[in-house]
Amino acid sequence: MKKQILSALGVRPRRRLTIAALLLPLALAGCSSPGESSSTSSESAKGEVSQAATDTVEKFKSVTDFVSPGPAVDVASLAGKSVFVIPLLTTNDYNIQINAAMERVAELADVDFEVYTNEGQPNQWVAGMNQAIAKGVDVIILSGGTDPRALEPQIKEARDRGIKVVVSMFWDTSAQYAPDCSGLSVDCVDGVDAIVAAPYQTATRLNADWIAVDSDGAANILVVTSNDAGPSPGQEAAFKDEIATACPSCETTFANVPISKWTTSVQSTVQSELVRNPDIDYVVPLYDNMASYAVAGITAAGKQGQVQVVTFNGTPAVLKMIQDGDVVTMDVGESLEGAGFAAMDNAFRLMAGMEPSRVADIVPVRIFDTSNIDEAGTPPEVNKGYGDDLEAQYLEVWGLG
What we know:
Elements (H helix, E strand, L loop, with lengths): L1 E4 L13 H4 L13 E4 L11 H11 L20 E6 L5 H17 L2 E5 L5 H14 L3 E5 L8 H9 L3 E9 L21 E5 L1 H15 L5 E6 L6 H15 L4 E6 L5 H15 L5 E4 L2 H13 L7 E6 L2 H8 L4 E7 L1 H16 L13 E5 L20 H9 L3
Parallel strand pairs: 1-4, 3-4, 3-5, 5-6, 6-7, 8-9, 8-10, 10-11, 11-12
Antiparallel strand pairs: 2-9, 12-13
Helix pairs in contact: 2-6, 3-11, 4-5, 6-7, 8-9, 11-12
């Protein structure tokens, strides 16, 4: 059974959402700025591509094998338990798809499932936490980017009331989870019982590997970051590290555009960098929501057919650009269905008195380019292309198959 808990402000039409609301967790600050260059250039190594990069690209072009979250769970014994979800916000496709996957599973398990409607404001998340605590639910899931650091007092109160808390798709897979926070490589929130890590840095490394292979080891790359987006500093560091190994002669420049300026500044930043450095042949906006503006910048600079866009998230609109032979040539997709299943799996484990799953790379990711884009559907669909048996595999783990 699903209940919609309305915030005091209600839900506004999607067209009125800010770009900031469309992304994922916001937090850490980085330090790069437009025009900052980080090059690993060596004439003697020109054209060299690591074998590891080549192998990795081939691996992730295919559907990856199912990764089990852990031992079997007797989900049938949890009927009547309750899960309360506080998403980053409830009106964008990213959260809608994750919520839909969780709801499907909850109905199969006969577990009460509630979603707190909000517009991405921390004060609304606080109100949602207070409602969940007052109701005495069994598990609260902070889903799809909700920042737990804005909710530390409420998370502590939930713990004191015996309510478990799962944080999904906020921290990167590089965060090594431990219940007492000692093993987390990022800011930790005491009282969080389980996390579902997001593949931010994995995707960024795949971007670097693909470019190395596609360019035959001779790319000049512009990476467009957003230092006010929580994952971005880690992604920038991951790209620098990966490209240095995968493509020793590749040259990389980083340009920072704050989230609030995507609609006004990504295009102009890309255009300016292409004029300043006409040798750039790859542009990497870290997230799909920046991609259309990057394409516009390339067009404005008159560089169509000379510069490619490589990005991350796998949203249908951007995947269709690949399918249509547009400027976008590769996108690392993530299964939002898989993110929803993983979050509910942890909720089930906690309600059953089991240890949470600590599998880091649990959300399926895949490289989509011209060689396999049609497997994402024609036109592409949000969860298509990651294998047909993901739900069946989870249902078997849960004893619901």
